[in-house]
Design brief:
The chain is globular, with a radius of gyration of 18 Å. Helix content is 39%, strand content 20%. It has a single domain, classed as Vaccinia Virus protein VP39 (Rossmann fold). With 259 residues, it is α/β, with parallel strands linked by helices. Helix 1 crosses helix 9. Strand 2, helix 4 and strand 3 form a beta-alpha-beta unit. The structure holds S-adenosylmethionine.
Length: 259
């Protein structure tokens, strides 16, 4: 596996995100109203009172704080960036949520190092899955820490197929490369993700295009303009990326007799 540089990336960039359009929620695929985004996620990830949740790639805990204010839940929030964890800790304290959210620095490729098997009712990955260096390792770890019949929810951008004219294909390749380099990403191929989930016996509840109404994408545009970033070479990102949501269940006893 390549050396993971994402922690350094977020140590350096988190305050820029916070101050330029993103606020406390570092997600690019969003409607104008951030509460609408988080309500949508809570609904689609089926967050319920009483759950023990792992937020793998939690940012500065903007989403975790929102969910903990709405539900009677416990969230373990994991980020690879020490800087993010420091900011998150302050925000959690300011919001009096220390009894509900526990933030820690760690790498989601090594979940078995931090957590016992069968620890969580739900794992959420909100625009963090795309940073995976090994999808297999991350999903195997998630499968291990989920309880039987518990769920994984992923919201992220995924790779589109490279189709059309040779110019279009080569432009798409260039844009993917830009995006991965600039955002420390590793844009996942949805078919590969699906195959890995199935190889671990995870059951698909749904896999769908994100249905959030995008009133604007000002946060992304403002952020990129302010920092002289031109990932999309003047184009529009939905020609390149698919915003998807995946919701999978870890089955109970997979050795049960087939009758
Ligand atoms: C785009 S931000 C999303 C943050 C958060 N989910 C939100 O909605 O505000 C990506 C997050 O994934 C985290 N991340 C990336 N790679 C990680 C890894 N290997 N282990 C743990 N966290 C990771 C980053 O630290 C960052 O918090």
């Amino acid at each position: 596996m390549k050396k993971n540089k994402t922690g350094t990336y977020y140590d350096e960039w988190t305050e820029h995100y916070m101050n330029t359009g993103y606020g406390n929620v570092i997600q690019a695929h969003r409607p104008a109203d951030v509460n609408q985004l988080l309500d949508y996620i809570a609904l689609n990830a089926n967050i319920k009172d009483g759950m023990q949740i792992l937020d793998a790639g939690c940012g500065i805990c903007g989403p975790a704080i929102f969910f903990a204010q709405k539900f009677n839940i416990k969230i373990t929030a994991l980020t690879i960036s020490p800087k993010q964890s420091e900011i998150a800790k302050n925000l959690i304290e300011e919001n009096n949520l220390s009894s509900k959210i526990d933030v820690m620095v760690g790498d989601y490729h090594h979940l078995d190092k931090y957590f016992e098997p069968q620890s969580f009712d739900l794992v959420i990955m909100l625009e963090s899955f795309g940073h995976c260096l090994s999808q297999k390792k991350v999903i195997a770890g998630i499968n291990n820490v989920l309880k039987d019949d518990a769920h994984l929810y992923i919201k992220d951008y995924f790779k589109k197929g490279f189709n059309g004219s040779s110019k279009r294909r080569s432009d798409m390749k260039k844009i993917m490369k830009n995006m991965n380099k600039i955002y420390s990403y590793n844009l996942p191929d949805p078919e590969e993700t699906y195959k890995i989930l199935r190889s671990m016996d995870m059951e698909m509840i749904y896999m769908q295009r994100n249905k959030l109404p995008l009133f604007n994408d000002d946060s992304v545009k403002q952020f990129e303009k302010n920092h002289d970033i031109d990932v999309f070479m003047g184009g529009f990102h939905y020609q390149i990326l698919e915003p998807l949501e995946l919701y999978f269940k870890k089955p109970g006893n997979i050795d049960a007799d087939i009758i």
